[in-house]
Amino acid sequence: MAKPKVATTSLCGCFGCHMSLLDIDERILELVDLVEFDRSPINDIKSIEHPVDIGLVEGGCANEDNVRVLQEFRRQCKVLVSVGDCATNGGLPSLRNLVPLEECLREAYLDGPTVHNDSGRIPDDEEIPLLLSRVKPCHEIVEVDYHLPGCPPSADAFWAAITALLEGHAPELPYLLCKYD
Amino acid sequence: MSDSDEATAIQLIIDGTEVTGHAGQTILEIADSAGIYIPRLCWLENLTPFGACRVCVVRVNGRIHSACTLPATNGMVVENDTEELRGFRKNLIDMLFAEGNHFCMFCERSGACELQALAYRFGITAPTYPALFPHREIDATHPDILIDRNRCVLCARCIRASKESDGKGVFGFAGRGIQKHLIVSAEGGLAETNIDASDAAISACPTGTLLRKRTGFAVPVGERPFDRTPIGTEVESTTGPTPPHASTPTSTPAPAGKE
């Protein structure tokens, strides 16, 4: 029987959650015996062509590209897990929700004390994904099956969640593994 | 309440367990002394009960009350740890998170915050409601104390502690409904009040709203009050090994989303 497939992706996050996943240390050898990795920043596969059993999404949605990737990811993942505070509640990037988007862009590209921008324009190339007016957690964009809070979730939390899902039941986080920081 | 009333022993039933107290005590006080934890946020020992947060909601003889404000009477039948009430409380905590700007990942009070600890105890893994991201003012005027209203849950513990414990009245509320906010007793900010960094009002804050400057992050992660021990354990351990509800694993179901 083919091994279950796991895919991961990072949206508006810092990759800290992926680093924490790697912190499972030698258990990663056990993990590669148990699963096959599909799209993931870890193996640099950039698109998800076929259905996978478990999808882990790090980061929230800050721009239209995040939304597109998340929707595509959701379509291919039988079980989707939001991983980390950015995915579960917007996290640090959602600090910008306290400031109107136009003000953020003006400060970053025009008015900021360290800005040198001779063009006097806010970057608007069509290659650059448009920012959403607010950073949103993943479950406000697509249906999310489980949440793994933490900034980042600990390696043990990852391990507990992944092994539970591989055994076919809902991840259960003991008190020590459910933390927001 | 006269002395003779206070001495009158009363009996009530909380979650099927017969407990005793005396007239004049609230349901919450009697539950505490019996080792039954009723979750609470705005209640603080030695302060006048306020009934603001409603986290201590219980059903008494079929009706909903806040356990911190309702005086117990003989023969009361109190429901506390029921699915319905746990649901109400979880929902209240969820709404408190949505209503403020609670960034646990960089908050100095993380690990010692009662709001966060309640969310842990209730197994909240992600917010149910879209956060409001309100605009809240910070007051850093005082050399030793910071007010970060982003984290304020309007529990009034600082207001009561300043009045009742410190004898000052530094804090108060202004505005109504969603506009309600914490104010201080001087137009120029906290620095112009008679607050002192050792005041009980600051320690009374359950979240990271009132902070003593230059004291943050002194306790390492893993050793903070709620890192290993769920909030309420201190009450439950007063009479023995009642297993805390939160010691059971927390499943991580997602809140309702949209496709």
Task: Give structural notes.
The complex is a heterodimer of chains A (181) and B (259). Chain A is an alpha/beta fold and 181 residues long. Chain A has one domain: Rossmann fold, CATH 3.40.50.700. Chain A contains six helices and eight strands, in the order E-H-H-E-E-E-H-E-H-H-E-E-H-E. Chain A has helices spanning 16-22, 27-34, 64-76, 85-89, 101-111, 155-166; strands at residues 5-10, 36-37, 52-58, 61-63, 77-83, 131-136, 146-148, 172-173. In chain A, the strands form two sheets. In chain A, strands 2-1-3-5-7 form a five-stranded parallel beta sheet, sandwiched between helices. A two-stranded antiparallel ribbon of chain A has the order 4-6. The termini of chain A are far apart. The mean pLDDT of chain A is 96. With 259 residues, chain B is of the alpha+beta class. Chain B folds into two domains: 9-81, Ubiquitin-like (UB roll), CATH 3.10.20.740; 90-213, 2-Layer Sandwich (Alpha-Beta Plaits). Chain B has eight helices and eleven strands. Chain B has a five-stranded mixed beta sheet, with helices on both faces. In chain B, strands 6-7-10 form a three-stranded antiparallel beta sheet. At the A-B interface, helix 4, strand 7 and strand 8 of A face helix 4 and strand 11 of B. Strand 8 of chain A pairs antiparallel with strand 11 of chain B, so a sheet runs across the interface.
How are the SSEs placed, and which strands pair?
The complex is a heterodimer of chains A (181) and B (259).
Chain A: E1 5-10, H1 16-22, H2 27-34, E2 36-37, E3 52-58, E4 61-63, H3 64-76, E5 77-83, H4 85-89, H5 101-111, E6 131-136, E7 146-148, H6 155-166, E8 172-173
Parallel strand pairs in A: 1-2, 1-3, 3-5, 5-7
Antiparallel strand pairs in A: 4-6
Chain B: H1 3-7, E1 9-14, E2 17-22, H2 27-33, E3 57-60, E4 63-66, E5 77-79, H3 83-99, H4 114-121, E6 138-139, E7 145-148, H5 157-164, E8 171-174, E9 181-184, H6 200-203, E10 210-212, H7 225-228, H8 233-236, E11 250-251
Parallel strand pairs in B: 1-5
Antiparallel strand pairs in B: 1-2, 3-4, 3-5, 6-7, 7-10, 8-9
